[in-house]
Amino acid sequence: MKQRNTLIPTLKEIPADADIKSHQLLLRAGYIRQNASGIYSFLPLGKRVLKKVEEIVREELDAVGAAELLMPALQPSELWKESGRWGTYGPELMRMNDRHDREFALGATHEEMITSIVRDEIKSYKRLPLTLYQIQTKYRDEKRPRFGLLRGREFVMKDAYSFHSSAESLDDTYEQIFQAYTNIFTRCGLNFRAVIADSGAMGGKDTHEFMVLSEVGEDTIAYSDQSTYAANIEMAEVIDSYSSSNEDMRDTEKVSTPGVKTIEEVASFLEVSRENCIKSLLFKVDEEFVLILSRGDHEINDIKVKNFMNAESVELASAEETKEIMGCTVGSIGPCTAGDKIKIVADQAVKYVRNGIAGANEEGYHLVNVNPERDFQAAVFGDLRFIQEGDPSPDGKGTISFAKGIEVGHVFKLGTRYSDAMNSTYLDENGRAQSIIMGCYGIGVSRTLAAVAEQYNDDRGLVWPSDLSPYDLHLIPINMKDEHQANLANELYEELRKNRYDVLMDDRAERPGVKFADSDLIGLPIRITVGKKASEGIVELKVRKTGDMHEVHKDDLLSTLIDIFKTLS
Protein backbone atom coordinates (compact mmCIF):
# COMPACT_ATOMS: atom_id res chain seq x y z
CA MET A 1 0.00 0.00 0.00
CA LYS A 2 1.28 3.44 -0.93
CA GLN A 3 0.87 5.77 2.03
CA ARG A 4 -0.59 8.49 -0.18
CA ASN A 5 -3.44 6.14 -1.08
CA THR A 6 -4.59 5.38 2.45
CA LEU A 7 -5.74 7.31 5.53
CA ILE A 8 -3.23 7.47 8.40
CA PRO A 9 -3.88 10.79 10.18
CA THR A 10 -1.14 10.88 12.84
CA LEU A 11 -1.18 13.38 15.70
CA LYS A 12 1.78 15.03 17.42
CA GLU A 13 -0.05 15.84 20.65
CA ILE A 14 -1.77 13.47 23.07
CA PRO A 15 -5.57 13.96 22.93
CA ALA A 16 -6.83 15.55 26.12
CA ASP A 17 -9.43 12.89 26.91
CA ALA A 18 -7.14 9.87 26.32
CA ASP A 19 -6.05 8.61 29.75
CA ILE A 20 -4.19 5.38 29.00
CA LYS A 21 -1.32 4.47 26.69
CA SER A 22 -3.26 2.28 24.25
CA HIS A 23 -5.98 4.91 23.76
CA GLN A 24 -3.43 7.68 23.28
CA LEU A 25 -1.30 5.75 20.79
CA LEU A 26 -4.15 4.27 18.74
CA LEU A 27 -5.47 7.81 18.29
CA ARG A 28 -2.09 9.43 17.66
CA ALA A 29 -0.95 6.74 15.21
CA GLY A 30 -4.15 7.01 13.18
CA TYR A 31 -5.64 3.59 13.95
CA ILE A 32 -8.96 4.82 15.35
CA ARG A 33 -11.06 7.96 15.68
CA GLN A 34 -13.77 8.71 18.22
CA ASN A 35 -17.20 9.56 16.80
CA ALA A 36 -19.11 9.81 20.09
CA SER A 37 -18.57 8.75 23.69
CA GLY A 38 -17.62 5.06 23.61
CA ILE A 39 -18.04 4.85 19.80
CA TYR A 40 -15.05 4.58 17.44
CA SER A 41 -14.26 4.20 13.76
CA PHE A 42 -11.48 1.81 12.83
CA LEU A 43 -9.35 3.59 10.24
CA PRO A 44 -7.41 1.51 7.67
CA LEU A 45 -4.53 0.58 10.00
CA GLY A 46 -6.91 -0.31 12.84
CA LYS A 47 -9.10 -2.38 10.55
CA ARG A 48 -6.09 -4.39 9.37
CA VAL A 49 -5.06 -5.24 12.95
CA LEU A 50 -8.67 -6.07 13.84
CA LYS A 51 -8.83 -8.42 10.85
CA LYS A 52 -5.64 -10.20 11.97
CA VAL A 53 -7.05 -10.76 15.46
CA GLU A 54 -10.23 -12.12 13.85
CA GLU A 55 -8.19 -14.47 11.64
CA ILE A 56 -6.38 -15.93 14.65
CA VAL A 57 -9.72 -16.41 16.44
CA ARG A 58 -11.23 -18.12 13.40
CA GLU A 59 -8.26 -20.44 12.90
CA GLU A 60 -8.28 -21.64 16.50
CA LEU A 61 -12.06 -22.08 16.74
CA ASP A 62 -12.28 -23.82 13.37
CA ALA A 63 -9.54 -26.18 14.60
CA VAL A 64 -11.80 -27.43 17.43
CA GLY A 65 -14.78 -27.95 15.12
CA ALA A 66 -16.72 -24.73 15.68
CA ALA A 67 -18.74 -23.41 12.72
CA GLU A 68 -19.17 -19.71 11.97
CA LEU A 69 -22.53 -18.04 11.37
CA LEU A 70 -23.86 -14.49 11.59
CA MET A 71 -26.91 -13.48 13.59
CA PRO A 72 -28.79 -10.17 13.49
CA ALA A 73 -27.80 -7.36 15.81
CA LEU A 74 -31.48 -6.32 16.05
CA GLN A 75 -33.29 -8.78 18.31
CA PRO A 76 -37.04 -8.97 19.07
CA SER A 77 -37.93 -8.42 22.70
CA GLU A 78 -40.02 -11.61 22.76
CA LEU A 79 -36.87 -13.75 22.90
CA TRP A 80 -35.49 -11.79 25.85
CA LYS A 81 -38.83 -12.00 27.61
CA GLU A 82 -38.81 -15.79 27.15
CA SER A 83 -35.43 -16.02 28.91
CA GLY A 84 -36.53 -13.57 31.61
CA ARG A 85 -33.69 -11.14 30.90
CA TRP A 86 -35.76 -8.35 29.31
CA GLY A 87 -36.56 -7.03 32.77
CA THR A 88 -33.35 -8.00 34.55
CA TYR A 89 -30.45 -7.29 32.19
CA GLY A 90 -30.34 -3.62 33.19
CA PRO A 91 -29.95 -0.24 31.46
CA GLU A 92 -26.92 -1.42 29.47
CA LEU A 93 -29.33 -3.17 27.07
CA MET A 94 -30.17 -0.73 24.27
CA ARG A 95 -33.91 -0.96 23.54
CA MET A 96 -36.00 0.58 20.80
CA ASN A 97 -39.37 0.43 19.10
CA ASP A 98 -39.97 0.20 15.36
CA ARG A 99 -42.65 2.14 13.43
CA HIS A 100 -45.23 -0.47 14.46
CA ASP A 101 -44.28 -0.01 18.12
CA ARG A 102 -42.69 -3.48 18.34
CA GLU A 103 -39.92 -3.71 20.90
CA PHE A 104 -36.36 -4.65 19.94
CA ALA A 105 -32.92 -4.74 21.54
CA LEU A 106 -29.56 -4.08 19.95
CA GLY A 107 -27.53 -7.19 20.60
CA ALA A 108 -25.47 -6.95 23.77
CA THR A 109 -25.14 -10.73 23.63
CA HIS A 110 -26.87 -13.51 21.68
CA GLU A 111 -27.86 -16.36 24.03
CA GLU A 112 -31.55 -15.86 23.29
CA MET A 113 -31.11 -15.62 19.54
CA ILE A 114 -28.87 -18.69 19.19
CA THR A 115 -31.11 -20.71 21.52
CA SER A 116 -34.12 -19.91 19.35
CA ILE A 117 -32.25 -20.98 16.20
CA VAL A 118 -31.10 -24.28 17.67
CA ARG A 119 -34.53 -24.87 19.22
CA ASP A 120 -36.08 -24.70 15.77
CA GLU A 121 -33.45 -26.73 13.91
CA ILE A 122 -32.04 -29.38 16.31
CA LYS A 123 -34.51 -32.12 17.26
CA SER A 124 -32.37 -35.22 17.92
CA TYR A 125 -29.42 -36.20 20.08
CA LYS A 126 -27.77 -37.37 16.83
CA ARG A 127 -27.14 -33.71 15.91
CA LEU A 128 -25.29 -33.00 19.16
CA PRO A 129 -22.76 -31.77 20.17
CA LEU A 130 -22.68 -28.62 18.06
CA THR A 131 -20.60 -25.44 18.44
CA LEU A 132 -21.47 -22.23 16.57
CA TYR A 133 -19.79 -18.85 16.67
CA GLN A 134 -19.92 -15.38 15.16
CA ILE A 135 -17.77 -12.25 15.06
CA GLN A 136 -20.02 -9.23 15.23
CA THR A 137 -20.48 -5.72 16.60
CA LYS A 138 -22.16 -5.63 20.01
CA TYR A 139 -23.93 -2.74 21.74
CA ARG A 140 -24.06 -1.90 25.44
CA ASP A 141 -25.10 1.43 26.88
CA GLU A 142 -22.19 1.76 29.28
CA LYS A 143 -22.82 4.33 31.99
CA ARG A 144 -19.23 5.51 31.79
CA PRO A 145 -17.39 4.59 28.59
CA ARG A 146 -13.66 4.97 29.19
CA PHE A 147 -10.19 3.91 28.16
CA GLY A 148 -10.92 3.95 24.45
CA LEU A 149 -11.60 0.48 23.06
CA LEU A 150 -11.39 -1.15 26.50
CA ARG A 151 -14.85 0.02 27.57
CA GLY A 152 -17.07 1.25 24.77
CA ARG A 153 -20.73 1.29 23.84
CA GLU A 154 -20.08 -0.38 20.49
CA PHE A 155 -17.41 -3.07 20.13
CA VAL A 156 -16.44 -6.12 18.12
CA MET A 157 -16.92 -9.47 19.85
CA LYS A 158 -16.59 -13.13 19.07
CA ASP A 159 -19.34 -15.10 20.78
CA ALA A 160 -19.59 -18.88 20.55
CA TYR A 161 -22.24 -21.28 21.85
CA SER A 162 -22.07 -25.03 22.28
CA PHE A 163 -25.00 -27.47 22.59
CA HIS A 164 -24.87 -30.89 24.25
CA SER A 165 -26.82 -33.90 25.36
CA SER A 166 -24.66 -34.53 28.45
CA ALA A 167 -22.59 -32.68 31.03
CA GLU A 168 -19.58 -34.77 30.01
CA SER A 169 -19.89 -33.52 26.43
CA LEU A 170 -20.06 -29.93 27.68
CA ASP A 171 -16.96 -30.53 29.81
CA ASP A 172 -15.05 -31.79 26.77
CA THR A 173 -15.98 -28.79 24.61
CA TYR A 174 -15.29 -26.38 27.47
CA GLU A 175 -11.76 -27.74 27.75
CA GLN A 176 -11.25 -27.53 23.97
CA ILE A 177 -12.44 -23.92 23.85
CA PHE A 178 -10.37 -23.12 26.94
CA GLN A 179 -7.28 -24.40 25.12
CA ALA A 180 -8.27 -22.54 21.93
CA TYR A 181 -8.46 -19.32 23.95
CA THR A 182 -5.06 -20.03 25.45
CA ASN A 183 -3.70 -20.47 21.93
CA ILE A 184 -5.39 -17.28 20.68
CA PHE A 185 -4.03 -15.00 23.37
CA THR A 186 -0.61 -16.62 23.21
CA ARG A 187 -0.51 -16.02 19.44
CA CYS A 188 -1.49 -12.41 20.08
CA GLY A 189 1.61 -12.13 22.25
CA LEU A 190 -0.28 -11.24 25.42
CA ASN A 191 0.80 -11.73 29.01
CA PHE A 192 -2.42 -13.17 30.44
CA ARG A 193 -3.94 -15.49 33.02
CA ALA A 194 -7.07 -17.62 32.99
CA VAL A 195 -8.90 -16.91 36.25
CA ILE A 196 -11.92 -18.34 38.06
CA ALA A 197 -14.80 -15.89 37.57
CA ASP A 198 -18.44 -15.06 38.26
CA SER A 199 -21.03 -15.59 35.52
CA GLY A 200 -22.94 -12.39 36.37
CA ALA A 201 -25.95 -11.61 34.15
CA MET A 202 -25.10 -14.53 31.84
CA GLY A 203 -26.20 -17.17 34.31
CA GLY A 204 -24.66 -20.61 34.54
CA LYS A 205 -21.65 -21.82 36.51
CA ASP A 206 -18.06 -23.04 36.08
CA THR A 207 -16.65 -20.00 34.35
CA HIS A 208 -13.21 -18.54 33.67
CA GLU A 209 -12.06 -15.11 32.53
CA PHE A 210 -8.96 -14.58 30.45
CA MET A 211 -7.24 -11.53 31.91
CA VAL A 212 -4.41 -9.55 30.35
CA LEU A 213 -2.10 -8.29 33.10
CA SER A 214 -2.05 -4.50 33.04
CA GLU A 215 -1.93 -1.68 35.58
CA VAL A 216 -4.85 -0.01 33.81
CA GLY A 217 -7.06 -3.09 34.20
CA GLU A 218 -10.40 -2.55 35.91
CA ASP A 219 -10.43 -6.03 37.47
CA THR A 220 -8.29 -7.35 40.31
CA ILE A 221 -6.78 -10.83 40.00
CA ALA A 222 -5.92 -12.84 43.09
CA TYR A 223 -3.14 -15.29 42.29
CA SER A 224 -0.82 -17.63 44.17
CA ASP A 225 2.85 -16.72 44.40
CA GLN A 226 3.76 -20.43 44.23
CA SER A 227 1.28 -22.05 41.80
CA THR A 228 -0.90 -21.44 38.75
CA TYR A 229 -3.98 -20.63 40.86
CA ALA A 230 -5.69 -17.39 39.76
CA ALA A 231 -9.21 -16.03 40.29
CA ASN A 232 -11.11 -12.81 39.95
CA ILE A 233 -11.05 -11.20 43.39
CA GLU A 234 -14.84 -11.55 43.55
CA MET A 235 -14.56 -15.35 43.25
CA ALA A 236 -11.33 -16.21 45.07
CA GLU A 237 -12.14 -18.68 47.83
CA VAL A 238 -11.02 -17.89 51.38
CA ILE A 239 -9.79 -20.91 53.32
CA ASP A 240 -11.14 -21.35 56.85
CA SER A 241 -7.76 -21.31 58.59
CA TYR A 242 -8.71 -19.10 61.53
CA SER A 243 -8.21 -19.84 65.22
CA SER A 244 -9.96 -18.47 68.29
CA SER A 245 -8.32 -16.81 71.27
CA ASN A 246 -8.06 -18.87 74.46
CA GLU A 247 -9.06 -15.97 76.68
CA ASP A 248 -12.17 -16.38 78.82
CA MET A 249 -15.45 -14.88 77.62
CA ARG A 250 -16.24 -11.70 79.51
CA ASP A 251 -19.63 -10.22 80.30
CA THR A 252 -21.17 -8.10 77.57
CA GLU A 253 -21.38 -4.37 78.29
CA LYS A 254 -22.97 -1.44 76.50
CA VAL A 255 -20.65 1.54 76.12
CA SER A 256 -21.25 5.06 74.85
CA THR A 257 -19.60 5.81 71.48
CA PRO A 258 -20.84 9.30 70.58
CA GLY A 259 -20.34 10.22 66.94
CA VAL A 260 -18.52 6.96 66.24
CA LYS A 261 -19.83 5.19 63.13
CA THR A 262 -17.18 3.43 61.01
CA ILE A 263 -15.15 0.39 62.00
CA GLU A 264 -11.99 2.52 61.92
CA GLU A 265 -13.56 5.05 64.30
CA VAL A 266 -14.85 2.32 66.63
CA ALA A 267 -11.47 0.58 66.78
CA SER A 268 -9.67 3.86 67.45
CA PHE A 269 -12.19 5.07 70.06
CA LEU A 270 -12.18 1.79 72.01
CA GLU A 271 -8.47 1.15 71.41
CA VAL A 272 -8.95 -2.30 69.89
CA SER A 273 -7.85 -3.89 66.64
CA ARG A 274 -10.23 -3.90 63.67
CA GLU A 275 -10.13 -7.70 63.54
CA ASN A 276 -11.77 -7.82 66.96
CA CYS A 277 -14.76 -5.83 65.69
CA ILE A 278 -17.85 -7.30 64.03
CA LYS A 279 -19.09 -5.41 60.99
CA SER A 280 -22.86 -5.63 60.44
CA LEU A 281 -24.53 -4.60 57.17
CA LEU A 282 -28.17 -4.96 56.17
CA PHE A 283 -28.69 -6.40 52.68
CA LYS A 284 -31.77 -7.04 50.60
CA VAL A 285 -31.38 -10.56 49.25
CA ASP A 286 -34.08 -11.00 46.60
CA GLU A 287 -37.09 -9.83 48.63
CA GLU A 288 -35.72 -10.70 52.10
CA PHE A 289 -33.69 -8.44 54.36
CA VAL A 290 -30.67 -10.25 55.84
CA LEU A 291 -28.03 -9.01 58.30
CA ILE A 292 -24.61 -9.98 56.95
CA LEU A 293 -21.65 -10.05 59.35
CA SER A 294 -17.92 -9.93 58.76
CA ARG A 295 -14.84 -9.27 60.80
CA GLY A 296 -13.93 -5.59 61.01
CA ASP A 297 -10.76 -5.93 58.92
CA HIS A 298 -12.62 -7.77 56.13
CA GLU A 299 -14.94 -6.55 53.34
CA ILE A 300 -18.24 -8.31 52.61
CA ASN A 301 -18.33 -9.65 49.04
CA ASP A 302 -21.85 -9.27 47.63
CA ILE A 303 -21.09 -11.70 44.77
CA LYS A 304 -20.24 -14.40 47.31
CA VAL A 305 -23.36 -13.53 49.29
CA LYS A 306 -25.45 -13.88 46.13
CA ASN A 307 -23.92 -17.24 45.21
CA PHE A 308 -23.92 -18.55 48.79
CA MET A 309 -27.61 -17.75 49.21
CA ASN A 310 -28.51 -18.83 45.67
CA ALA A 311 -30.11 -15.44 45.10
CA GLU A 312 -31.06 -13.57 41.93
CA SER A 313 -30.09 -10.16 43.33
CA VAL A 314 -28.26 -8.75 46.35
CA GLU A 315 -28.12 -5.06 47.21
CA LEU A 316 -27.24 -3.02 50.27
CA ALA A 317 -30.28 -1.74 52.12
CA SER A 318 -30.84 2.00 51.96
CA ALA A 319 -30.35 4.23 54.99
CA GLU A 320 -34.13 4.56 55.28
CA GLU A 321 -34.68 0.79 55.15
CA THR A 322 -31.92 0.23 57.72
CA LYS A 323 -33.47 2.78 60.10
CA GLU A 324 -36.93 1.27 59.71
CA ILE A 325 -35.88 -2.34 60.23
CA MET A 326 -32.98 -2.03 62.70
CA GLY A 327 -34.13 1.11 64.55
CA CYS A 328 -30.81 2.93 64.10
CA THR A 329 -28.39 4.19 61.48
CA VAL A 330 -25.86 1.99 59.70
CA GLY A 331 -22.99 2.85 62.08
CA SER A 332 -24.77 1.44 65.13
CA ILE A 333 -26.37 -1.80 63.90
CA GLY A 334 -25.28 -5.14 65.34
CA PRO A 335 -26.40 -8.74 65.71
CA CYS A 336 -27.04 -9.13 69.45
CA THR A 337 -30.60 -7.84 69.61
CA ALA A 338 -31.41 -8.45 65.97
CA GLY A 339 -31.98 -12.19 65.98
CA ASP A 340 -35.68 -11.93 66.70
CA LYS A 341 -36.13 -9.34 63.93
CA ILE A 342 -34.10 -10.63 61.07
CA LYS A 343 -32.06 -13.52 59.68
CA ILE A 344 -28.31 -13.33 60.41
CA VAL A 345 -25.71 -14.79 58.04
CA ALA A 346 -22.02 -14.47 58.95
CA ASP A 347 -18.65 -14.88 57.32
CA GLN A 348 -16.75 -17.85 58.72
CA ALA A 349 -14.12 -15.60 60.36
CA VAL A 350 -16.79 -14.13 62.68
CA LYS A 351 -17.18 -17.53 64.37
CA TYR A 352 -13.68 -17.14 65.88
CA VAL A 353 -14.08 -13.62 67.32
CA ARG A 354 -13.63 -13.62 71.11
CA ASN A 355 -14.82 -10.70 73.26
CA GLY A 356 -15.46 -8.58 70.21
CA ILE A 357 -17.10 -5.23 69.52
CA ALA A 358 -20.47 -4.82 67.76
CA GLY A 359 -23.16 -2.21 67.26
CA ALA A 360 -25.85 -2.04 69.95
CA ASN A 361 -28.74 -1.16 67.60
CA GLU A 362 -28.99 2.05 69.54
CA GLU A 363 -27.70 5.37 68.28
CA GLY A 364 -24.32 6.30 69.84
CA TYR A 365 -23.73 2.95 71.58
CA HIS A 366 -21.74 -0.23 70.97
CA LEU A 367 -21.46 -3.53 72.81
CA VAL A 368 -18.13 -4.84 74.05
CA ASN A 369 -17.24 -8.48 74.86
CA VAL A 370 -19.58 -9.85 72.22
CA ASN A 371 -19.15 -13.58 71.54
CA PRO A 372 -20.80 -15.46 68.68
CA GLU A 373 -23.25 -18.21 69.59
CA ARG A 374 -23.41 -16.98 73.20
CA ASP A 375 -24.67 -13.47 72.39
CA PHE A 376 -26.22 -14.04 68.97
CA GLN A 377 -27.07 -16.92 66.69
CA ALA A 378 -26.15 -16.84 63.01
CA ALA A 379 -28.35 -18.95 60.77
CA VAL A 380 -25.26 -20.07 58.89
CA PHE A 381 -21.56 -19.29 58.51
CA GLY A 382 -19.82 -19.24 55.12
CA ASP A 383 -17.13 -17.71 52.94
CA LEU A 384 -18.62 -14.25 52.35
CA ARG A 385 -15.62 -11.91 52.23
CA PHE A 386 -13.11 -10.66 49.70
CA ILE A 387 -9.77 -12.44 49.80
CA GLN A 388 -6.80 -10.29 50.85
CA GLU A 389 -3.14 -10.23 49.89
CA GLY A 390 -1.20 -12.56 52.19
CA ASP A 391 -4.12 -14.97 52.70
CA PRO A 392 -3.34 -18.65 52.04
CA SER A 393 -3.90 -19.69 48.42
CA PRO A 394 -7.07 -21.81 48.07
CA ASP A 395 -5.06 -24.60 46.40
CA GLY A 396 -2.84 -24.88 49.47
CA LYS A 397 0.26 -23.62 47.64
CA GLY A 398 1.73 -20.29 48.67
CA THR A 399 -0.05 -17.06 49.53
CA ILE A 400 -2.21 -14.65 47.59
CA SER A 401 -0.92 -11.62 45.68
CA PHE A 402 -2.94 -9.12 43.61
CA ALA A 403 -2.54 -7.86 40.05
CA LYS A 404 -4.71 -5.72 37.78
CA GLY A 405 -6.16 -7.26 34.64
CA ILE A 406 -8.08 -6.44 31.46
CA GLU A 407 -10.74 -9.04 30.66
CA VAL A 408 -10.41 -10.14 27.02
CA GLY A 409 -12.24 -13.48 27.10
CA HIS A 410 -14.83 -15.35 29.16
CA VAL A 411 -16.02 -18.97 29.03
CA PHE A 412 -19.20 -20.25 30.73
CA LYS A 413 -20.94 -23.52 31.38
CA LEU A 414 -24.53 -22.33 31.06
CA GLY A 415 -26.16 -25.70 31.64
CA THR A 416 -29.90 -25.55 30.86
CA ARG A 417 -30.43 -21.93 32.00
CA TYR A 418 -31.65 -20.79 28.56
CA SER A 419 -32.93 -24.04 27.11
CA ASP A 420 -35.26 -24.55 30.08
CA ALA A 421 -36.58 -20.99 29.88
CA MET A 422 -37.02 -21.12 26.10
CA ASN A 423 -38.13 -24.75 25.76
CA SER A 424 -35.14 -25.81 23.63
CA THR A 425 -35.21 -29.61 23.73
CA TYR A 426 -34.03 -32.66 21.80
CA LEU A 427 -35.20 -36.25 21.72
CA ASP A 428 -32.81 -38.66 23.43
CA GLU A 429 -32.08 -42.30 22.51
CA ASN A 430 -35.39 -43.32 24.11
CA GLY A 431 -37.44 -40.70 22.31
CA ARG A 432 -37.83 -38.56 25.42
CA ALA A 433 -37.56 -34.77 25.33
CA GLN A 434 -34.56 -33.39 27.20
CA SER A 435 -33.31 -29.83 27.68
CA ILE A 436 -30.25 -29.03 25.60
CA ILE A 437 -27.16 -28.34 27.73
CA MET A 438 -25.28 -25.19 26.69
CA GLY A 439 -21.90 -23.49 26.92
CA CYS A 440 -21.05 -19.89 26.02
CA TYR A 441 -17.66 -18.44 25.07
CA GLY A 442 -16.84 -14.78 24.36
CA ILE A 443 -13.78 -12.83 23.21
CA GLY A 444 -13.61 -9.06 23.01
CA VAL A 445 -11.91 -8.76 19.63
CA SER A 446 -11.55 -4.97 19.61
CA ARG A 447 -10.66 -5.08 23.31
CA THR A 448 -7.91 -7.62 22.54
CA LEU A 449 -6.48 -5.18 19.99
CA ALA A 450 -6.38 -2.47 22.66
CA ALA A 451 -4.85 -4.86 25.22
CA VAL A 452 -2.04 -5.69 22.80
CA ALA A 453 -1.43 -1.97 22.23
CA GLU A 454 -1.37 -1.49 26.00
CA GLN A 455 1.38 -4.09 26.42
CA TYR A 456 3.36 -3.35 23.23
CA ASN A 457 4.60 0.23 23.13
CA ASP A 458 7.49 2.46 24.09
CA ASP A 459 8.09 6.18 24.42
CA ARG A 460 8.07 6.61 20.62
CA GLY A 461 4.89 4.74 19.79
CA LEU A 462 3.40 1.31 19.18
CA VAL A 463 5.54 -1.82 18.78
CA TRP A 464 3.29 -4.44 17.19
CA PRO A 465 4.00 -8.18 17.46
CA SER A 466 4.73 -9.40 13.92
CA ASP A 467 1.60 -11.58 13.79
CA LEU A 468 -0.71 -8.61 14.42
CA SER A 469 1.08 -5.73 12.75
CA PRO A 470 -1.06 -4.05 10.06
CA TYR A 471 1.90 -4.32 7.65
CA ASP A 472 5.11 -6.33 7.87
CA LEU A 473 7.41 -3.62 6.54
CA HIS A 474 7.56 0.16 6.41
CA LEU A 475 9.45 1.15 3.27
CA ILE A 476 10.62 4.76 3.47
CA PRO A 477 12.35 6.50 0.57
CA ILE A 478 13.91 9.65 1.99
CA ASN A 479 13.36 11.70 -1.17
CA MET A 480 11.06 10.51 -3.96
CA LYS A 481 12.40 13.29 -6.19
CA ASP A 482 15.78 11.54 -6.19
CA GLU A 483 15.77 9.22 -9.21
CA HIS A 484 17.94 6.51 -7.60
CA GLN A 485 15.83 6.46 -4.42
CA ALA A 486 12.52 6.45 -6.27
CA ASN A 487 13.59 3.66 -8.63
CA LEU A 488 15.02 1.45 -5.86
CA ALA A 489 12.02 2.05 -3.58
CA ASN A 490 9.56 1.08 -6.32
CA GLU A 491 11.67 -1.94 -7.28
CA LEU A 492 11.79 -3.17 -3.66
CA TYR A 493 8.10 -2.46 -3.18
CA GLU A 494 7.17 -4.78 -6.04
CA GLU A 495 9.74 -7.44 -5.14
CA LEU A 496 8.68 -7.60 -1.48
CA ARG A 497 5.00 -7.83 -2.37
CA LYS A 498 5.76 -10.69 -4.80
CA ASN A 499 7.36 -12.50 -1.85
CA ARG A 500 4.15 -12.13 0.17
CA TYR A 501 5.21 -9.30 2.44
CA ASP A 502 2.62 -6.67 3.37
CA VAL A 503 4.41 -3.39 2.65
CA LEU A 504 3.47 0.17 3.54
CA MET A 505 5.51 2.55 1.41
CA ASP A 506 5.78 6.15 2.60
CA ASP A 507 5.72 8.00 -0.71
CA ARG A 508 4.61 11.28 0.86
CA ALA A 509 6.40 14.54 0.17
CA GLU A 510 7.40 14.94 3.83
CA ARG A 511 10.67 15.67 5.61
CA PRO A 512 12.68 12.60 6.74
CA GLY A 513 12.12 13.49 10.42
CA VAL A 514 8.34 13.45 9.94
CA LYS A 515 8.47 10.11 8.13
CA PHE A 516 10.67 8.50 10.80
CA ALA A 517 8.55 9.86 13.69
CA ASP A 518 5.36 8.59 12.06
CA SER A 519 7.01 5.22 11.39
CA ASP A 520 7.96 4.82 15.05
CA LEU A 521 4.47 5.89 16.09
CA ILE A 522 2.76 3.41 13.74
CA GLY A 523 5.04 0.64 15.02
CA LEU A 524 5.56 -1.81 12.13
CA PRO A 525 8.14 -4.53 12.87
CA ILE A 526 10.83 -3.46 10.37
CA ARG A 527 11.61 -0.15 8.69
CA ILE A 528 13.51 -0.15 5.40
CA THR A 529 15.04 3.23 4.59
CA VAL A 530 16.08 4.03 1.02
CA GLY A 531 18.53 6.90 1.25
CA LYS A 532 21.88 8.21 0.06
CA LYS A 533 23.28 4.78 -0.82
CA ALA A 534 20.40 3.93 -3.15
CA SER A 535 22.68 4.27 -6.15
CA GLU A 536 24.78 1.43 -4.70
CA GLY A 537 21.68 -0.72 -4.05
CA ILE A 538 22.12 -0.43 -0.28
CA VAL A 539 19.29 0.20 2.19
CA GLU A 540 19.09 0.53 5.96
CA LEU A 541 16.96 -1.83 8.06
CA LYS A 542 15.77 -0.92 11.54
CA VAL A 543 14.04 -3.40 13.87
CA ARG A 544 11.32 -1.48 15.71
CA LYS A 545 11.34 -3.71 18.79
CA THR A 546 15.09 -3.64 19.48
CA GLY A 547 16.30 -0.60 17.55
CA ASP A 548 18.94 -2.76 15.82
CA MET A 549 20.20 -1.27 12.53
CA HIS A 550 21.51 -3.16 9.47
CA GLU A 551 22.90 -1.93 6.15
CA VAL A 552 21.87 -4.47 3.51
CA HIS A 553 22.37 -4.76 -0.23
CA LYS A 554 19.15 -5.25 -2.15
CA ASP A 555 20.30 -8.70 -3.31
CA ASP A 556 20.56 -9.84 0.33
CA LEU A 557 17.39 -8.15 1.55
CA LEU A 558 15.02 -11.13 1.36
CA SER A 559 17.34 -13.53 3.19
CA THR A 560 18.06 -10.89 5.86
CA LEU A 561 14.35 -10.30 6.41
CA ILE A 562 13.75 -14.03 6.85
CA ASP A 563 16.43 -14.17 9.55
CA ILE A 564 15.11 -11.09 11.37
CA PHE A 565 11.48 -12.26 11.37
CA LYS A 566 12.59 -15.59 12.86
CA THR A 567 13.87 -13.67 15.88
CA LEU A 568 10.58 -11.73 16.17
CA SER A 569 8.22 -14.72 16.06
From TrEMBL:
PROSITE patterns referenced in this protein's UniProt entry, alphabetically: AA_TRNA_LIGASE_II
Oligomeric form and interacting partners: Homodimer.
Compartment(s) where it occurs, according to its Swiss-Prot or TrEMBL record: Cytoplasm
Taxonomic placement: Bacteria, Bacillati, Bacillota, Bacilli, Bacillales
Keyword presence, Magnesium: no
Gene3D superfamilies per record: Anticodon-binding domain, Bira Bifunctional Protein, Domain 2, YbaK/aminoacyl-tRNA synthetase-associated domain
Catalyses which reaction(s): tRNA(Pro) + L-proline + ATP = L-prolyl-tRNA(Pro) + AMP + diphosphate
EC nos: 6.1.1.15
Main location: cytoplasm
Superkingdom to which the source organism belongs: Bacteria
Domain Aminoacyl-transfer RNA synthetases class-II family profile: from-to ranges: 38-465
Name the UniProt record assigns to this protein: Proline--tRNA ligase
GO biological process, one term: prolyl-tRNA aminoacylation
Similarity comment: Belongs to the class-II aminoacyl-tRNA synthetase family. ProS type 1 subfamily.
UniProt keyword annotations, A-Z: Aminoacyl-tRNA synthetase, ATP-binding, Cytoplasm, Ligase, Nucleotide-binding, Protein biosynthesis
Domains as described in the record: Consists of three domains: the N-terminal catalytic domain, the editing domain and the C-terminal anticodon-binding domain.
Pfam families assigned to the protein according to its UniProt record, in alphabetical order: HGTP_anticodon, tRNA-synt_2b, tRNA_edit
Job description of the protein: Catalyzes the attachment of proline to tRNA(Pro) in a two-step reaction: proline is first activated by ATP to form Pro-AMP and then transferred to the acceptor end of tRNA(Pro). As ProRS can inadvertently accommodate and process non-cognate amino acids such as alanine and cysteine, to avoid such errors it has two additional distinct editing activities against alanine. One activity is designated as 'pretransfer' editing and involves the tRNA(Pro)-independent hydrolysis of activated Ala-AMP.
Enzyme class: ligase
GO cellular component: cytosol
Keyword Chloroplast: no
GO MF annotations, alphabetized: aminoacyl-tRNA deacylase activity; ATP binding; catalytic activity, acting on a protein; proline-tRNA ligase activity; transferase activity
